[in-house]
Design brief:
The complex is a heteropentamer.
Chain A: E1 6-17, E2 20-31, E3 35-40, H1 46-53, E4 61-66, E5 69-70, E6 84-87, H2 99-106, H3 113-126, H4 128-132, H5 143-155, E7 161-165, H6 173-188, E8 192-197, H7 200-206, E9 209-214, E10 217-223, H8 224-229, H9 231-238
Parallel strand pairs in A: 3-8, 3-9, 6-7, 7-8
Antiparallel strand pairs in A: 1-2, 1-4, 4-5, 9-10
Chain B: H1 3-24, H2 27-30, E1 43-51, H3 58-78, E2 80-82, E3 85-95, H4 100-113, E4 117-120, H5 124-137, E5 141-143, H6 150-153, E6 159-161, H7 166-179, E7 185-190, H8 194-209, E8 213-219, H9 228-235, E9 241-245, H10 248-260, E10 266-269, H11 276-282, E11 290-294, H12 304-315, H13 323-340, H14 345-353, E12 356-359, E13 362-365, E14 376-383, E15 386-394
Parallel strand pairs in B: 1-3, 1-4, 4-5, 5-6, 7-8, 7-9, 9-10, 10-11
Antiparallel strand pairs in B: 2-3, 11-14, 12-13, 14-15
Chain E: H1 2-32, H2 39-59, H3 66-93, H4 102-123, E1 128-129, E2 138-141, E3 144-147, H5 148-170, H6 172-182, H7 184-189, H8 194-220, E4 222-223, H9 228-242, H10 247-271, H11 281-295
Antiparallel strand pairs in E: 1-4, 2-3
Helix pairs in contact in E: 1-5, 1-8, 1-9, 1-10, 2-3, 2-4, 2-8, 2-9, 3-8, 5-6, 5-8, 6-8, 9-10, 9-11, 10-11
Classes of the chains: A alpha/beta, B alpha/beta, C mainly alpha, D alpha/beta, E mainly alpha.
Keywords (chain B): Amino-acid transport, Signal, Transport
Protein name (chain B): Branched-chain amino acid ABC transporter substrate-binding protein
InterPro entries (chain B): Leu-bd (IPR028081), Leu_Ile_Val-bd (IPR000709), Peripla_BP_I (IPR028082)
């Protein structure tokens, strides 16, 4: 594992809104091919961390080294071409674009039409549901299908690192299962992933490694299995 | 709210006042355009002139101003004595922006400047509200171009005009349509401005009185360019003549759209579009259409040829419409002063009422309301791309059916 | 305001007294130095102050962007004009409604305010659910509709006399004295412009006092609360519908008073005095001066009304002297400056020239408000 | 009012449904809150807690169901009627009047309990002045009550996060509620602030105001609430005293997540 | 009946012009939720610049057939209006994107006034006649009359609108525009440069405005510096009627408003026995605007967006 290349390295990251620190100096490291889970209670700063990693929020301090390059302060729309994609919380699909148009938006920065078409087929392979509904407006899909669109769209940007924010939120358990199956499948195809998830058990069972975040700080960092077994983590999570 | 703030406002207001004062410092001529400066020593008599000098009829306002200027420069050159003293005249020209509110401000400026008389305003909408201020201050006002009957119906002793009013113009046009054009059915459109509506109403009355059927009354605005809808309605009523009360900017496209719809009826209207601009805007379709102008045709005005020469020499431009009227108004006002032996409004006002003046536009006498007696209206037609006088109709009240005989004005 | 005086120190009394004297002698100082034209301008400026303060209630306090405000001015003007001119005499004579004509000022003025207020509610009620731009556009439409009706209600029954306008409106008559005539008191001649000045000053002060008192009442707080956050205001039990309508009604009634006075002052009203541009100018007075802040609004009204008058005195003579020709006309220049000022102030000083502390805070909250929003997000993310 | 027995029902809803387009945000929710208790509402993100809150405070109109408060029917009533009946609330994302001072914010809260109209405001008759003085005094004492009196003159938006939360509570209390509904009041607070908040809530309850509380901090909820209801997917999956709820397998599953296997 | 058909044709012609201008409003509104008050002035600029360009060209002895001369004029006016649109967004709207909504609305009014006054400075406040360069032979159509120019206007408007629809529906830029209008931050995550897309929206809308301006000028034979306001307001009404933000809606709204106005002005008088008549023609637009905004703010084709508290 140590031979693997470090894809993302975050050092001393702080994010402040006004006077309040949402993220209070965290370190993260993600190696090529890993699936890392970031778990923690509501308001712990997970989403803020993710947003900072793709430039949607500018950090107050700290550095983000991505693929060996400092990417702390480049415009948001430049991240995707560097191989960083995010599936935002609440999915963020374009409701009045069709399913296929949504997917094409994922490939917005790319100009290799033939390759895009291949990737499109691959996404349809992963999500046959989407192929059935490719002409439907995405806003009319069910929550689970929308999540599929959001993930498919991210895949079409050919990410090296995929950030997933709460993919299970608001979805019925059976759909959650399905989404996580696909997450594992994408991971198995070699895409590195950082997963923010409330459903801690599910997230840790899927991931290789995990970080636990509390009040803007990383409190535990370990392998997923170790964290799952850690009673303190369970307590921290459930509250007592 | 603190007192400090109030005092700040006060300071601001005072500061403004102070600024205003400094800027006003070169007072007399600052207020108006450069006028023929009066040499020191002579008594200076100020005459106010007001018209829109900016905005979309600024060219007409400028024309009015030029008429006054020409009269004053001539008078100063001739040397005028009033009450045994040599006097010089000075014009103060103000821009009323064709806006009623601005017009009253301008009127107040004239009152402040103690002008002996006012030539203006150009529009009825500005002439009427300002006439009240002149009346209150006792300053005689002669409008060269305001044709709304209301102006002289207010009972002000100071209000005069040297042009036939809308009753005369509308009436003359109605008569022309009935008699000369032999119209049986007319449709009337107006632009919902004081001018257009007033003229259209008078036309309607006159036409009806002559037994012409009014088959349609439609409306537009003075900002409109699309008349297809109302013209289509009118088309269904098959009129012989379409009267338009409004200005050239609408009359032009209206005439074009008429042709587009294949309506053969003639267009007829008032002085609002008896302009070169109309011919430009209506293009070929202007040919054969009619519009009137108060007064005699220019070539029949007794002193017009001479005036035209002087005007062109001085201003290097063509007369628009009303310059001869402002010229006459200025000169007849001075005549009244001479007769009264005073430029004091109170003294010469009675003389003004008794005016009997032979001007470049023809003979001028006022009735008891201040309207010109026997004011005439000339109807023009576009022929070969130019306006040509085709008939002159006398004011129905003064000279009924005097169409062909402009020279036979009653004189006393 | 009166309450404030009670609480303030002697120095403040002195300041107040000086200010009162300044206001009292201003027309004579102006008249002596600049001529009565400027007194007349002061009178008109006072009308605009009333108008701007009325719009300030709607836009400044309650945050409802009204682009048709001039309609209420028009309503007030026509109410006064129709009841105090010969125009309706033929129609009303013999109908038993002659008593409507020539009512005393103290009746006509509240009537104008009331009718304008009712119009405010009528025009306001359909717009309650609309926000921002849409509200602006709908009120703009209402303003134009009112003007078009005034322009066209001369047929089939002649009510407004259409585009000809209503003429021969009687001047204000107070205590048996007609304002069109000069009156001499203690050897000082008070001319018509002076009398109107004091009347308008009194009304403007009245409107200022009412504005201040409303602002610091539970109603004023409710307006601001709605402007700040309508949902939270609802959650505080504020009946947002009624409170908004009240803002429309109050603002409109100020406009109505101002309009009635305009009619009597001018002696003539016609629809062309109530065009959209007038609404925009009044809005600009409020915005450029400082929304919601009474001294700012007054400053805005005075500046925007008087600047063109000053330009009239400056631009043409200057051009005549410098180039001997009038290339730019003052009206053109005024509008150009006006447009540029609107843009410039919004970009550089969006809170206006003389804002309240509150507004200043609001318009400079970009950064820290964004931060706050994000922070909340963070708190729940 | 003071001697009413604990256990008297203050608020009662049943069969509440709320749909947004295709989303069934609340389905058949029933609960009753007793006078004087602190009643907690928990559930994972998106479970419908805030929607229920908005229904209970009149911001959302439920599609069907029953809603009574003190025996008064509040089904589909406007927020101002709800507030007048005695339910006040705070917001998940603080919704203060940013550009009003803290004191003014609380004074706005008195709106629903005061009556001065335009005439009163303009003429400042003795009654209005007395009322205004009362508003001022009450607002001051409420600022004192939540412990931010010294910030009374500051703009609400310039207060610290914790103080903004307190101010929102003071503003809600100004409407004289019998039921105070707090939407995640501890979110974003550090442990010290959370602890202070807990004390404040206990104080409010001891002063006779019933509290309905949504909170993510389960630990806080367990220690504070008399009873807790758990929502998941718009349905109530459990209700009871904290100990029961904590050991309810459905709750554990909802929170920790269903095991993937 | 022929009168009715004529009114429909009249409405269709005016409506096509409204539709073309409405597209400019709706594009900007869709992407920024901003009423670009200055769009009417862009239309005016397009017309005035074209007239000037054409008269300079024909004055300098260029001997082209009429239609080509108009095209040459458009080639001058379109880039200038595009640049104007770009500059307006850059100067007056972009710095205020995060400001309270009132602020950009007021700068928009300011820009509108400035453009109008600049036009007055350049062209004076008189109507300019549009040179008679396009064919305008009349044809009979079921008893009504339609001219070549009118046919040309309707066809050209449809072609331009069709082109725009294809651009927005089928191209990458169009997709990006739609995406930005729905969710800016997610669109930027996809690599879309938001500022670029917004600028392009203004630029394209302004080009359409210029074309519409020339149509107005050619159809009515004149243009003048203050023409922008009224036509802009009506086109905005059309956009609202169709569902603002919705391109097809703008087209439908434009055509419908044209017909409402035309038929209304033609038949309101007879229907109301002369109480109301063509003097209320301008009121139709405002009435439609108010009724739509109050009763169906999403317009005819816009989807209803449930407002969340």
């Amino acid at each position: 594992m140590s031979e693997q290349k470090t894809l993302l390295e975050v050092k001393g990251l702080q994010v402040a809104y006004g006077g309040i620190q949402a993220v209070k100096g965290i370190d993260l490291e993600i190696k090529q091919g890993e699936l890392v889970a970031l778990i923690g209670a509501n308001g712990a700063g997970k989403t803020t961390t993710l947003k900072t990693l793709v430039g949607m929020v500018k950090p107050a301090a700290g550095t983000i080294i991505y693929n060996g390059e400092d990417s702390t302060r480049i415009p948001v729309h430049h991240y995707v071409s560097r191989g960083l994609a995010m599936v935002p919380e609440g999915r963020g699909i374009f409701p009045r674009l069709t399913v296929e148009e949504n997917l094409w938006m994922g490939a917005y920065y790319r100009n290799d039409k033939a390759e895009i078409l291949m990737d499109l087929e691959r996404v349809y392979g992963l999500f046959p549901r989407l192929k059935e509904r490719y002409k439907q407006l995405a806003g009319t899909l069910s929550g689970g299908e929308q999540q599929m669109v959001a993930m498919g769209r991210a895949i079409l940007s050919r990410p090296k690192l995929l950030l997933l924010d709460e993919p299970s939120m608001g979805l019925a358990p059976i759909i959650v299962q399905k989404i996580f199956e696909i997450i594992r499948q994408i991971a198995s195809e070699g895409v590195t992933m950082l997963l923010v998830e409330q459903n801690a058990k599910l997230a840790l069972k899927t991931a290789n490694r995990g970080y636990v975040m509390e009040s803007g700080r990383i409190t535990y960092a370990d392998s997923a299995d170790a964290l799952l077994a850690n009673e303190k983590v369970q307590h921290a999570y459930l509250g007592e | 709210m603190t007192l400090a703030r109030y005092s700040l406002i006060a300071t601001a207001v005072l500061a403004l006042a102070a600024c205003g004062k400094q800027e006003e410092a070169p007072a007399p001529d600052a207020a108006g355009a450069p006028a023929a400066a009066a040499p020191a020593g002579d008594e200076v008599i100020k005459i106010g002139h007001a018209a829109p000098l900016t905005g979309n009829i600024a060219h007409l306002g400028k024309d009015n101003e030029n008429g006054v200027r020409l009269a004053i420069e001539e008078l100063n050159a001739e040397g005028v004595e009033i009450g045994g003293k040599k006097v010089k005249f000075e014009m103060i020209s103000e821009d009323d922006q064709a806006d009623p509110k601005t017009a009253t401000t301008v009127a107040q400026r004239f009152v402040d400047a103690k002008v002996a008389g006012v030539i203006g305003h150009l529009n009825s909408g500005t002439t009427i509200p300002s006439s009240k201020l002149y009346s209150d201050a006792g300053i005689p006002q002669i409008s060269p171009s305001a044709t709304n009957p209301q102006y002289t119906l207010q009972g002000f002793k100071t209000a005069y005009r040297v042009i036939a009013n809308d009753v005369a113009q509308g009436g003359a046009l109605g008569e022309f349509a009935a008699t000369n054009l032999k119209a049986k059915k007319v449709a009337i459109i107006d632009d919902r401005t004081a001018y257009g509506q007033g003229l259209a109403d008078e036309f309607e009355k006159a036409a009806k009185a002559k037994g012409v059927e009014v088959v349609g009354r439609e409306f537009t605005t003075n900002q409109a360019t699309d008349f297809m809808a109302i013209l289509t309605t009118i088309k269904g009523k098959k009129p012989d003549v379409i009267f338009y009360g409004g200005m050239d900017a609408q009359a032009g496209p209206l005439t074009q759209q008429l042709k587009k719809l294949g309506i053969a009826a003639k267009v007829i209207g008032g002085d609002g579009f008896q302009t070169g601009e109309y011919i430009k805007l209506a293009g070929d379709n202007a040919e054969g259409q009619f519009a009137s102008q108060p007064g005699m045709p220019k070539d029949k005005m007794p002193g017009f040829a001479d005036f035209d020469k002087k005007y062109k020499a001085k201003f290097n431009t063509d007369i628009q419409i009303y310059a001869p009227f402002t010229y006459d108004a200025t000169r007849l006002m001075v005549e009244a002063m001479k007769r009264a032996g005073s430029a004091d409004p109170a003294k010469y006002l009675p003389e003004l009422a008794k005016t009997d003046y032979q001007g470049v536009t023809g003979p001028i006498k006022f009735d008891e309301k201040g309207d010109i007696v026997g004011g005439q209206v000339t109807v023009y037609q576009v022929k070969a791309g130019k306006w040509e006088a085709v008939a002159t109709v006398g004011s129905p009240a003064a000279a009924p059916a005097a169409a062909a005989a402009p020279a036979e004005q009653p004189k006393q | 305001m009166l309450a404030n005086i009670k609480q303030s120190k002697p120095a403040a009394y002195a300041g107040m007294a000086i200010f009162a004297v300044v206001l009292a002698v201003l027309p004579f100082v102006m008249g002596a130095t600049l001529g009565n034209t400027w007194v007349r301008n002061l009178d008109l400026a006072m009308l605009y102050i009333m108008l701007a303060l009325g719009l300030n209630i709607v836009v400044g306090y309650a945050g409802l962007l009204d682009l048709g405000y001039i309609a209420f001015y028009a309503v007030g003007a026509y109410v006064y004009a129709l009841l105090n001119s010969p125009h309706l005499v033929p129609m009303l004579s013999g109908t038993g409604f002659e008593w409507l004509l020539h009512m005393p000022l103290l009746v006509v003025l509240p009537l104008a305010a009331l009718l304008a207020g009712i119009f405010g509610v009528l025009l306001g009620s359909p717009t309650l659910k609309l926000r921002g731009d849409y509200l602006a556009i709908v009120t703009l439409g209402f303003g134009e509709i009112v003007r078009l009706f005034m322009n066209n209600l001369d047929r089939p029954i002649n009510i407004t006399n259409g585009p000809q306008g209503v003429n021969l409106i009687e001047p204000v008559s107070l205590f048996g004295h007609k304002f069109s005539q000069a009156i001499t008191v203690f050897g000082i001649e008070f001319r018509s412009v002076h009398l109107y000045y004091y009347l308008f000053l009194a009304l403007a002060l009245l409107i200022i006092v009412v504005s201040i008192r409303l602002q610091s009442s539970r109603i004023g707080r409710a307006w601001v609360a709605i402007r700040e956050d309508e949902i939270a205001a609802q959650a505080m039990g504020i009946n947002t519908r009624n409170v908004k309508l009240l803002a429309f009604a109050m603002g409109a009634s100020f406009g109505g008073v101002s309009g009635a006075m305009f009619a009597s002052f001018q002696g003539f009203v016609s629809p062309e005095s109530f065009i959209l541009m007038e609404s925009i100018v009044v809005l600009a007075m409020v915005v450029l001066g400082g929304m919601g802040h009474i001294p700012g609004v007054i400053l805005g009204a005075v500046l925007l009304f008087l600047t063109p008058e000053v330009l009239r005195d400056v631009v043409n003579p200057l051009q005549d002297k410098l180039i001997g020709e009038r290339l730019v006309n003052p009206e053109n220049l005024r509008m150009l400056l006006f447009g540029i000022a609107l843009i410039f102030v919004m970009l550089v000083r969006p809170e206006g020239l003389w804002p309240s502390k509150q507004r200043k805070a609001e318009f400079h909250e970009d950064d820290d408000l964004k931060a706050k929003d994000a922070e909340k997000e963070a708190a729940h993310g | 009012m003071a001697n009413q027995a604990n256990g008297e029902v203050l608020l009662e809803i049943s069969g509440i449904h709320k749909r947004f387009g295709g989303l069934h945000a609340l389905s058949d929710v029933a609960l009753s809150i007793n006078k004087g208790e602190i009643y907690g509402l928990i559930g994972p993100n998106g479970a419908g807690k805030t929607t229920l809150f908005n229904v209970l405070t009149g911001l959302y109109q439920p599609d069907e169901g029953k809603f009574t408060f003190k025996g008064i029917d509040l089904f589909r009533k406007k927020p101002n009627v709800v507030v007048e009946s005695g339910i006040a609330r705070t917001f998940q994302n603080i919704r203060l009047f940013h550009n009003m001072t803290a004191l003014e914010n609380v004074m706005v809260g008195r709106h629903v309990r005061t009556r001065a109209n335009v005439l009163g405001a303009v003429f400042r008759d003795p009654k209005t002045r007395a009322e205004e003085a009362g508003i001022h005094e009450r607002a001051q004492s409420l600022l004192d009550y939540v412990g931010i009196r010294k910030h009374g003159g500051e703009f609400a938006k310039n207060l610290s996060y914790g103080d903004q939360r307190r101010l929102e509570i003071a503003r809600a209390l100004a409407t004289d509620p019998q039921l105070l509904a707090l939407d995640e009041p501890a979110a974003g607070m550090n442990p010290k602030e959370t602890d202070d908040l807990k004390k404040l809530m206990e104080k409010i309850r001891n002063d006779g105001v019933t509290i309905l509380l949504i909170e993510h901090d389960v630990k806080l909820m367990m220690g504070l609430c008399d009873r807790i209801a758990v929502l998941d997917y718009g349905k109530k999956i459990a209700e009871g005293v904290p100990e029961e709820v904590k050991n309810n397998p459905r709750v554990i599953e909802a929170y920790l997540g269903a095991s993937p296997d | 009946m022929d009168i009715f058909i004529q009114q429909l044709i009249n409405g269709l012609v005016v409506g096509s012009i409204y539709a073309l201008i409405a597209l400019g409003y709706t594009m900007v509104y869709g992407i920024l939720q901003l009423i670009n008050f200055a769009h009417g002035e862009i239309v005016m600029m397009g017309a005035m610049i074209t007239i000037s360009a054409v008269s300079i060209l024909s004055g300098s002895g260029v001997n082209l057939p009429g239609p080509l001369l108009v095209v040459a004029g458009l080639l001058v006016s379109i880039p200038i209006t595009m640049l104007l649109g770009f500059t307006i967004e850059r100067v007056a709207y972009r710095p205020l994107r995060k400001a309270p909504r009132l602020a950009p609305l007021i700068t928009a009014i300011g820009i509108s006034i400035v453009l109008q006054q600049v036009a007055v400075l350049i062209w004076k406040n008189n109507p300019r006649s549009f040179p008679d360069l396009l064919p305008h032979a009349s044809h009979d159509f079921m008893g009504a009359v339609i001219t070549d120019l009118q046919i040309l206007i309707v066809v050209l408007a449809l072609v331009v609108m069709g082109g725009l629809l294809i651009m927005v529906e089928k191209t990458k830029l169009g997709r990006a525009m739609r995406a930005v209008s729905m969710n800016q931050s997610v669109a930027s995550l996809m690599g879309v440069n938001i500022n670029y897309v917004i600028s392009m929206t203004f630029v394209i809308g302004s080009a359409l405005g210029a074309v519409a301006g020339v149509m107005v000028g050619a159809n009515y034979g004149l243009a003048y510096p203050t023409m922008g306001f009224m036509i802009g307001l009506k086109a905005f009404t059309a956009a609202v009627l169709g569902g603002i933000g919705n391109l097809a809606g703008a087209v439908a709204g434009g055509l419908l408003l044209g017909i409402i106005e035309s038929v209304g002005a033609g038949y309101l008088g007879p229907i109301t026995g002369g109480v109301l008549g063509s003097h209320y023609q301008d009121i139709f637009a405002f009435m439609v605007l108010i009724l739509v905004l109050v009763f169906r703010p999403s317009g005819l084709l816009g989807e209803r967006v449930a407002e969340r508290a």
